[in-house]
Design a protein that fits this description.
It is built from eight helices and no strands. It is mostly helical. The protein has one domain (about 5-195). Helix 1 packs parallel to helix 3 (about 65-75).
């Protein structure tokens, strides 16, 4: 089984899971639940389009059964936010909901635009370091976008648990991946200069 098959399956199920939670907890009149469904459900559908049109080669790797189980468990944690919203009947203030949607929207832009730029650059300039566009000041703009996406989701739940899960995934998965990526990019002669003028994840900060 390839890694992409597990990820794509979870992305495709997200909207159905949220609808099932809304039904189970009778949250059809909860505007926050509907907003969450619109955001996370749409994200899952966009991901499936991305996976087909400009897929990431990392997800093409075949994985072992223990890895598949661990990945599935990790992806399931992303459904904590809708469970908290529906089970607790959370109805966020409108200004707060608008702020979460804005964070999510900016994250969607960064995540998919950065991935598209990488896809096109690798196709047109194979073997060259990508250090322009969205990648000019941040070495992982796609991760930054994903951070903002899940920050918007987690904040909508108005609970600390989704944020804690996100921080745990960043520390346990994203950081090792970014370290490994920097080590791989070090083979380019211009990488030292690029590393000095860019940040790991957040422009001008980290």
């Amino acid at each position: 089984m390839k890694q992409k098959h597990i990820i794509d399956t979870y992305k495709s199920l997200t909207a159905l899971v949220i609808l099932a939670l809304m039904a189970a907890y009778r949250q059809w009149a909860n505007p926050t639940a509907w907003v969450y469904l619109a955001l996370h459900g749409t994200y899952g559908l966009i991901w499936l389009v991305k996976s087909r049109v400009f897929p990431d080669k990392r997800w093409e790797q075949t994985v072992t059964l223990p890895y598949a189980i661990g990945l599935s468990a990790t992806l399931t944690l992303y459904w904590l936010a809708p469970w908290l919203i529906t089970s607790r009947g959370i109805q966020a203030p409108m200004w707060y909901t608008a702020a979460c949607v804005s964070v999510y929207t900016f994250g969607i832009f960064l995540h998919y635009t950065a991935d598209m730029q990488k896809h096109v650059a690798l196709a047109l300039r194979p073997g060259q370091l990508i250090d322009d566009g969205l990648w000019a000041r941040v070495r992982n703009p796609n991760y930054l976008g994903e951070l903002l996406i899940y920050l918007g989701y987690g904040a909508l739940a108005m609970h600390w648990l989704p944020i804690a899960v996100l921080l745990g995934i960043i520390a346990g998965v994203w950081v090792p991946n970014m370290i490994a990526k920097d080590r791989s990019l070090a083979r380019y002669p211009e990488f030292d200069s690029y590393r000095q003028r860019s940040r790991w994840l957040v422009p001008f900060v980290l």
